[in-house]
Structure formats: structure tokens, C-alpha cells
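hiii so my PI (J.) wants the whole complex modelled not just the main chain, which honestly fair. so below is everything: two entries, each one labled with what it is. i double checked the lines twice but i was tired so who knows lol
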Amino acid sequence: MIKVQEKDFDVSAELAALCQGRTNVGAVASFIGLVREVAGPGALSAMTLEHYPGMTERQLAGLEARALERWPLDRVLIIHRFGRLLPGQQIVLCAATSPHREAAFEACAFLMDWLKTKAPFWKLEEVGSQTRWVDARKDDDDAAARWQTDASDTDNSET
Amino acid sequence: MKLLYFSWLRERVGTAEETVRPPEDVATVGQLITWLTRQSSGHAAAFADPSIVRCAVNQDYAKAEAAVGADDEVAFFPPVTGG
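here's the output for the full assembly
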């Protein structure tokens, strides 16, 4: 299930809903991403997430389908927020459920690594009265590349 | 052809969305970028370094050699930074 929303989410309610009535599920792995405050004089005061409505849902649904195909999962959940967020607030929730833990852990890591390089979101940081767009990190590309199985997994490379 | 811009490309071009009618010899993403850079100084600034511009045609990632046509939705943006 994919949710792209401005409002906050309740992790325990979301995970409970994911497992409700699913007696074959023995493992739930989840990841929660938060807005991180960087200490020092250039402290972050807020972050605004812009996204591409339509394409975001399409890319996240593609990731969900790929995870379900690759691992013996029961369900996948991705919630990603947009709009202006403050340090400590929740940005993203990824979860995968499975009969066994390995598939759930791996799928959850795969979803986050790929989300970072595929989902069309851009972060605008506010530092004091200044704003700056966050640059993409090569580490994130490398993290996603370890899951690569075929050439179609490289389509966020240079235009 | 409907064009969308995000993040700092939107700021440099000066609009989030525009409809354009490029000449018929503009048939690929790369050719579209070349044509757009000649449309205004804002477009030229946005596409000054094409290596940091990503493109999607009809909401799927597309490379420079991908085909574009009059009915397509073409989006330009920097490398993504979600999660």
C-alpha cells in the first residue's frame, strides 16, 4: 500500500492495520525516517519536501510491486509525507510483512534504498533566513545499486 | 507538449508548468533540452549543466535519447532527495 500525504502518521496504528487478520505473518520489519537537526551555527530550522504528484505514487507503487515479486512477503506499506516539516518530525515509513524475518528485513532495506534514488521528492532546507536545496548523495546511489538485478534498475542515472 | 519543472529547475525557469510547441525536428529529450535552452535566459540557466538534470516522460524516468511528442508530459528536475 502506498500513501503520499501531508499529514503525520501513527506508526503503531499503521503497523497494526498491516497485520490485522493476517495469521500467516510472523515478521514485521519497519523503518521510520525523521527530519534530522544538524548541530552548529547552521542549524536546520525546517525542511520542505516538494514532490511530483502522480509520478511519486507511480514510482512507489512500482517499488512495492518489485519487492512483492522478489521476496515472499505478505504486504508492503510505504507512507511518505510532503510539505514543511520540523526537526524530529516523521518523513517516511516503510514496512514489510512476511512469514519469516529475513525477507521482511531485506525488503524493508530495499524499499528505503530505492525510494531514496527513485521517488521524485526534493528537500528544501531552511537554515536561519536562508534556504537551500539538498544535493543528492552518491552514497544513496551506491546503496541502491547493491540491489540491482538487471539493466532496468539504473534508469535514474544521467539524462 | 506539457512541461513540468521541480525544485531549483522550477526556480530558474520561473514557472512550474508550461505548454510548448517545439519544431518537428525536436524528437528526443536531448533535442528538447537543446531547444529549451534557447527559449529564455531562465531556461538556459536551468539547463546549464545537463549532467545534473533528470527527466521523466509521462512519469517514467527517461534518458536523453528517449522520444518525446506533442501529447507527452515531460518533467525536468534535479536528482531526487526523498526518504
